[in-house]
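Posting for a labmate who doesn't have an account.
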Amino acid sequence: MPIFARRRLYRMLDDLTAHADQTKIGELRRHLDSENTDATLSAEAEISLLWAISNVARLEVGPEIAATGRRPDAYSENLFPSSAAIIEIRALSEHSFSGREAMAHRRKGVSVWLTIRRSGLQPNKQK
């Protein structure tokens, strides 16, 4: 399920073209158009975060760090007053949005509790 309307995402992406090279913009567009739900959700999250940062600070998307040759997601000289920031955005997946892991943990606890109750035993009560 998308986070933002497609029209809004492409408007954000268009706004980011002033801060990024066409290679990075093309990569984000490919991920948005992907059949892979995880890739699409990750692109939506990355675009929205980069767009939000670009509205409050100077932003360079996908710069090459000369000393290391690495290409972080973004760099901002003035996002924080104390120093510059190299920004890496964690990839998200549909599973982390859904809470599936937390629900599986709760389901296991409920299952154990029901098994104990059905056996006629009283679950341990914590004081």
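Reply:
Got it, the structure tokens are right above this. The chain has two domains: 6-92, 99-127.
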